[in-house]
Amino acid sequence: MSALALSVLDLAPVQADATATEALAATTRFAQTVERFDFLRFWVAEHHNMPGIASSSPPVVLAHLASATKKIRVGSGGVMLPNHAPLVVAEQFGTLESLYPGRIDLGLGRAPGTDPVTARALRRGARGAGGDEFPQELTELISYFRGTADTVASPGYGAEPEIFLLGSSGYSAQVAAILGLGFAFAHHFSPDNTHAALKLYRDNFRPSAELSEPYVIVAVSAITAETDAAADELAKPRDLAMANLRSGRPQALATPAQAASFGATPEERAFSAHRKAGQLQGSPQTVRAQAADLLATTKANELMINTMIYNIDDRIHSLELTRDAVLAAADPTA
């Protein structure tokens, strides 16, 4: 396998005792640190009606992050295409690519990234909310970048960012394969589907002008600390956030004290344990072994690390430890 690339997926987490302003400032600092760590990309994700996430508008956040960094690629992980008119997305990312040539990624998903009521509000109606029109809307979007549409996207035409499809099942894997696009799989929240989706993508891949062979990004949750027990403590606010989201009551990221005092039900504990399986969590030695297994089974070209930790200093330290452990797993002889 060629040298492994490392990237970051960030959700601009909003702390229970902080504001969106503080969350976005922390994400900016995080992006600058990730660039110093020499990672390839820094992506933010579109979510709506979620008080704990401040990245609801990726194009706006990316414009700021690109201006605050110098060379790292910045992108969406992703823009949820059912929420937007394709021409608007083409103009937004065409503008970003024109401002920061060669540094913009457009990761696209077919889920709305929110609940049905909010999805309808975003699109002012039911059209597109279920993702059924995703292939047609994707084709339309690409046509604006390439100048084959009846309408000219300006900026947009001739300013195509690097496009990836995001997925948590086999659907987007097959679309990405047919179109010859890169594929980013959400292993961090759909680990049961990872291997089947990657096989579909690789088996059906058709070379394109963009890619001569498949390119796989695997997004993984990672929390690394000096000991396994310390990593488990850092993970508690994230685990509580996922339990709240699953139960339909999304909230800001709980403080470590709030998370530690939360009385999880047996079902919630089982859910957290299942989500932890296959992810990266523990001491550097533990994470190195976990990463070696993940890389061996997925043959990923790139790992995209999501580190949902309450304190930004802890988040940065965890990422540094994770980077060293993953790179050691990728090249044991180094």
From TrEMBL:
Keywords: Monooxygenase, Oxidoreductase. Residues 7-293 form the Luciferase-like domain. GO terms for molecular function: monooxygenase activity; oxidoreductase activity, acting on paired donors, with incorporation or reduction of molecular oxygen. InterPro entries: Bact_Lucif_Oxidored, CmoO-like, Luciferase-like_dom, Luciferase-like_sf. The keyword Oxidoreductase applies. One of its GO terms (cellular component) is cytosol. NCBIfam families: oxido_grp_1. To bacterial alkanal monooxygenase alpha and beta chains. PANTHER family: LUCIFERASE-LIKE MONOOXYGENASE. This is FMN-linked alkanal monooxygenase. It comes from Nocardia camponoti. The lineage of its organism: Bacteria, Bacillati, Actinomycetota, Actinomycetes, Mycobacteriales.
